[in-house]
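DATA SHEET
Item: assembly model
Revision: 1
Owner: S.N.
Input lines:
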Amino acid sequence: MEFNPNKAIYLQIRDSICERILSGELKPEDRIPSVREYGASIGVNPNTVMRTYEKLTQEGVIYNKRGIGYFISQEAKDLVLESSRKEFIENELPVMIRKMELLGLDPKELFDNK
Amino acid sequence: MIEIKDLAFSYGNVPVLKSITTSLEEGRIYGLLGENGVGKTTLLTLLCGLKKADSGSICTDGENPFDRTPSLLEKQYYLPDEVAPVAMKAEVFAKERGAFWPLYDHEIFLTIMKEFENDPSKKMNQMSAGQLKKTYISFGLATGCRYLFMDEPTNGLDIPSKAQFRAAVMKYTPEDSTIVISTHQVRDLENIIDPVIILDKQDVLLNASIEEISEKLYFDYGTTQREDALYREALPGGFLQVCPNTGGEESKVNIEALFNTVHAHKELIKGMFNK
C-alpha cells in the first residue's frame, strides 16, 4: 500500500491492517501482534499502535480477549468493505472525477476499453 | 511518575533552567527537544540526581533523585551523550555493572548486542564511537529500569543501527517505564517519541502527546499557500504548512515543523495547549 504522508500515523496503520483484511491475508480469528510487538516491528510508538487498535475495536473490526490479545472479528471483512467503499465514494472518487474532467477523459471510454 | 515543580538551575551565575514545571508519566517515551544550550542535558542530569536543583523540586515516585537512595538508583539509568571507553571487554563490564540493577538481564544485553552486530568480547576502548555507544545502549536497555534517560542516543549510530535502536527501545523496556530521550535527530526518532517536550531557556514550551498535537494543529502538505499558516516551508512538491486545526481532521505530526512553529509562536502555542 502507499502511505499518505498527510495522514496521522495511527490511521495509516489502520488502513494497512484493513487492506490486509480485504486481501484475505488476515482472516477472522487471526491474532494480530501486541501493540509493543507491532510497534517494534514497524518502528512506531506503542501508544500510536494502541490508538489504531482502539479505533479498530470501536469499529468492530478487531476484538480484545483479555490477557490474550487482539483478534480479527468474524464480520471484519464486511465492515472494512463497507467503510472503505464509503470512503472511496466520498473522498477519492470526487478527486478522480475532477481530475478526469481536467484531463478531458470520458469515463465510459476509459472503463470500456479496460 | 516524575513531577517537576518550579525547577531552577544555574552554572555559577549563568542561569540555565529558570522555572520548569511539568510531569512525566509512566509507559511513555518522551522526546526532549530544544535548541543548543537550553539545558536539555542539564535537565536530564537533574532528573537522575547527578545535580542539585537551586530551587524547586523533582519528585520521582515520591523521592528526590538528589537524595540518591539505592531504591531509586536501582530503577533508573542515565545514558550520557559521551560514554567512557573502559578498558574492559563489553560482556565483562556489563555483567559486573549489572549487579547494581536488580532487574538487569545479561541475556538481554547479549541479545541486543547481537541485534546491533556488536561483538561483546571486544574491549570497549578498542571500539569505534558507534560500537561503544551501542554497547551502552544495550546495557541501559538490559537494566530493565523504570526510568531511562538517554542523551542523544542515536548520535554516531550508523543507518541500520538507528532502526535497530527504535525496535530495541520498544522491545526491551518494561511496559510501565518512563523513557526520556533528548535529541536533535528528530527524523531518527519521529515515530517513536510521544509525547514531545519542547524546552526553552525559561520554561517548557510544550509537553503534549502526538494525539493532542494533531488535535490542535493541522500539518498541511499541499500546493496552495494558506492564510492561517503559523509556519510554512517549501517542499519539492509544494508546501508543508502548520495551521490551527479547525477542521477536526488529524494529520501526521512533523516534529521538525512542530518545533519551528512552537518557536515562532511561543505564547500562542502555550495558550493553545495549556487550556
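QC remark: Chain B touches chain A through 25 residues (CB under 8 Å).
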